[in-house]
Design brief:
Chain lengths: 546, 546
């Protein structure tokens, strides 16, 4: 009964079918590395036959070996009336270099006759020949039986014939999909058992959608009925109402059902956050297990009860999934985290006894205002240096002025004037840019260039803007995240303000301060600093592929 | 088997335990009227013993008769060692004037001994005496067995004693609560059956929380096991991860399980929207059944299939829950999508045969540049009008100037000057703002206000910024999305540029153009235009009940 449940993540493929979810190839790679680090068994990277971006992902993924997960490329069965050998989509699967091919085919007769407009027999041949072709090329082949449960409801005989065909053709696993998300747990269990009777002991998988709010429940029902492969996405991202949310499925399997799962659950919360940040989507506070409110306690009596007896009000220990209790009255979280982080960033915290507490309070206050230091190591380093009196600014702002002008339908023009002071010397420069932040960046770079000629090795590699409280319209606070790199490393900085220019300035200034601080310590032969140890630095520099 | 399932809504009480969810007494009344109109059986209005706002709600609610629902006031069992007659909380229940009292008591021995710090026997007496007292005063009494499932897991004997005590004391129904939200469907069903054996045929209810993402599934499992009263909230609002979402539970019970439910499901989507608007919380697009993405289709092949055979890709007809199909116009999409969308937006495409093709090409080109029209109906409408020569601008930009100034560590200051032309008349105004976009918004609004006094019903409700090609650093293109609303509807607009101010301006200007176009067609009594037919605009006017 305790067969290990294999986890198949499709955040990078089905997840991107969600409204507003999209990733560049580089972003996909970053997420894949985090998924690998969590411990999932399979990572579906994309549909190489369908778009160039996915193809590029598989290209760059080949250069970065995964430690645990197998990479899967997604595709569909060969065209009706065609030949598997000549099918360009199947060729793309082979070209992708992924060791696993996941192909979907039709299980619902309605789809065969009305959508594909082919015969039921030809559809079976498509399934058989596609799988056999891919097996001949030595791939592990997972067969996704699209619309299996709807098909089984309307024409059980045919639906079962399709999965039997897949099994006979040599598929390594057959995944039953509730593509439209309309099935109930009892239906899932019954249909899965019926499929098991026709697939000769082959591992069965489950792929659910959340159109009834039951994606997690349906996944669990399938596992109870015998499925041993679970498909889902981080944060449940996916088409319409989303896919089964692995951030719920994994802890339930492991912590509630006692099933073996090769995943380090303590990394779940930070992975969830990382994926939503990368997608630039506001994380759902109420998300089970990993949401910010998942272990939040409100109300006086309640809170004192939680402190006395956590199990009275918490269904699991939040630390098991990397989350923390949020008691909306006082501190608690954090001091040891901060100490850990400070060590990692090379900023010693020892000092007066109250220091650590004061620093935690300060950081909490800033996070309340929208800062998020877990994704901005560079700014955290500067903040810790400031709070411990160790910060040595390499430049100071005297003032800036940014002007944006637009006339009729001509493009905007932006220019900036920046006045800084370096070692008592003032410098004032002006520059244009593609927009106000670009103008500011150019002007600052020009001003600093007089003092620090090495700056041209530094590039801003990513610029993200997130509106924190968008319901305040244009008066909303915004958070700007900037990723920067030079030849050696990557670092991230953050700014928060109601004024997007102010927020951008903070992140920009921090980024330059980090760079200058590192260059200085490099010159003086000090040990490696902080930002170089940031997790993002496993990614190869993008410039090399440009 | 087809006993009617009674629906007990607790949006106004347990829903407000959710982070960021709160309602004034007047807002509660508006929601209560909408719930009554939907057809729910019970509306839990609040906890009159716990706060004055809830007391006031019951006062004003007495003046507005409900047509269908019974109003319930919430409270807890008498104090340990006290007398029911002398308990001020119980007195508040009677004073509230609500015909139904819902009282919760402890079913988990741990809570009795560790949190209440009383004896197991005294807890049973508290349950018995509280219920008997309220029954003597002629109320319908619903007993909420708090932490029943956790209690049953640790000490089944005692948990069952508590519900037996409630039944024997004369409760009209006993509701089993999964207060911490940690139970699985199988546990729920088994414990409910055990409780049924001790409550002598009394109606049993179910109250679940979503901490495992299973609140809906657990509710359904309870109904299958015999529960006939379902507690939940609209949109699943509630403490931590929320309560069972009635917007999923109701359609599943009625449409999938064939259970009788007295609710007009066609009003569900607008009720969901109304509650989130009243709570001033951004609605969850991926919400099953009622979310904006719940019946959204993306991808060309897929879309043409949906048009041919809706049941192939939709688990129910969206109209059954008052929702609509949305075709997302994306770069994969072809001509049939645009034609469909244009019809939906009320912009006729007929004309020269090449027109549709030209429009598709144009949209593809813009999407290549970063526009995303699937999330910006308002801008798509304007674009289609422009491309078909139907666009009538309500104002034209002459010029704007935005200046952002910062001195040392003082906050930025932003101001904007806007010069526009309306019907040949020029207007120039200036305004400050929280940042450059806010300043621009304020200045434009001020300038337009001279010509269009109705503009103050319009609000920008969300402002999103996404960097498209962040790897170009501060020269990256940004996409700005603005959501706006007035009393009748919601619309979204988009702008894309390397200059964030330019992108914001495009989205801002489009938003005002959409608003003005709609106001004009309203005044001239013309048939419904574009944005009115947009899916979001099916919101009923909120004003009617104010």
């Amino acid at each position: 009964m305790n067969e290990r449940i294999r986890i198949y993540d499709t955040t990078l493929r089905d997840g991107t079918q969600g409204e507003n979810i999209s990733f560049s190839a580089e972003e996909k790679l970053k997420i894949a590395l985090r998924l690998d680090d969590l411990g999932v068994d399979y990572i579906e990277g994309g549909w190489p036959g369908s778009n160039p971006r996915d193809l590029r992902f598989f290209e760059i993924a080949r250069t970065v070996p995964l430690r645990h997960a197998r990479l899967a490329a997604f595709g569909c069965t060969r065209k009706p009336g065609g030949a598997a050998e000549a099918d360009p989509h199947l060729a793309a699967l082979l070209q992708s270099g992924a060791p696993v091919a996941t192909v979907f085919g039709k299980s619902w007769d309605l789809h065969v006759t009305r959508i594909l407009e082919t015969s039921l027999e030809e559809n079976l041949a498509m399934i058989r020949e596609t799988i056999a072709h891919l097996k001949r090329h030595g791939l592990e082949v997972i067969y996704d039986a699209e619309h299996f449960f709807d098909g089984y409801r309307r024409n059980p005989g045919y639906a079962l014939e399709t999965v039997q065909a897949a099994a006979e053709a040599g598929a390594d696993a057959v995944v039953l999909c509730d593509t439209n998300g309309g099935s109930l747990p009892g239906e899932i269990a019954a249909a899965l058992r019926a499929a098991a009777g026709r697939t000769g002991g082959l591992p069965l998988g489950i792929h659910t959608h959340n159109d009834c709010g039951l994606a997690v429940a349906n996944t669990l029902a399938a596992v109870e009925a015998g499925a041993s492969l679970v498909q889902g996405t981080i944060n449940g991202y996916g088409e319409r109402c989303g896919n089964a949310d692995l951030t719920s499925v994994l802890p339930i399997l492991a912590l509630k059902m006692g099933r073996a799962v090769a995943a380090d659950l303590r990394k779940l919360q930070s992975l969830s956050r990382f994926v939503s940040e990368t997608a630039n989507v506001v994380p759902l506070h109420a998300r089970p297990f990993v949401g910010r409110s998942a272990f939040a306690h409100k109300g006086g009596v309640h809170v004192s009860a939680v402190m006395k007896t956590p199990e009275a009000y918490e269904h699991i220990d939040p630390a098991l999934v990397g989350n923390t209790r949020r008691v909306l009255v006082s501190d608690l979280a954090g001091r040891s985290n901060i100490a850990y982080k400070a060590r990692e960033l090379g900023v010693p915290l020892e000092g007066k006894p109250g220091d650590a507490r004061r620093i935690v309070e300060e950081i909490k206050q800033l996070e309340q205002e929208g800062y998020q230091f877990d994704v901005a190591d560079g700014s955290l380093q500067i903040l810790l240096e400031k709070l411990t009196g160790r910060f040595e600014p390499h430049f100071e702002l005297e003032s800036f002025r940014v002007t944006i002008e637009k006339d009729r339908e001509f493009p905007c023009q932006a220019h900036a004037t920046v006045k800084i002071r370096v070692n008592g010397k003032q410098e004032i420069t002006a520059a244009e840019g593609y927009g106000p932040v670009s103008a500011l960046d150019n002007a600052l770079r020009k001003a600093l260039g007089r003092f620090f000629p090495d700056l041209d090795t530094m590039r801003l590699t990513d610029f993200k803007v997130r509106v924190i409280d968008g319901d305040r319209g244009t008066a909303a606070r915004v958070r700007v995240l900037i990723d920067s790199r030079d030849r050696e490393s990557l670092w991230s900085t953050i700014g928060v303000s109601e004024d997007i220019i102010e927020a951008s300035w903070q992140a920009l200034a921090d980024s330059f301060q980090v760079k200058l601080a590192r260059d200085k310590s490099d010159r003086s032969g000090q040990p490696e600093r902080a930002a170089q140890a940031a997790p993002a630095s496993r990614i190869p520099p993008q410039g090399e592929q440009a």
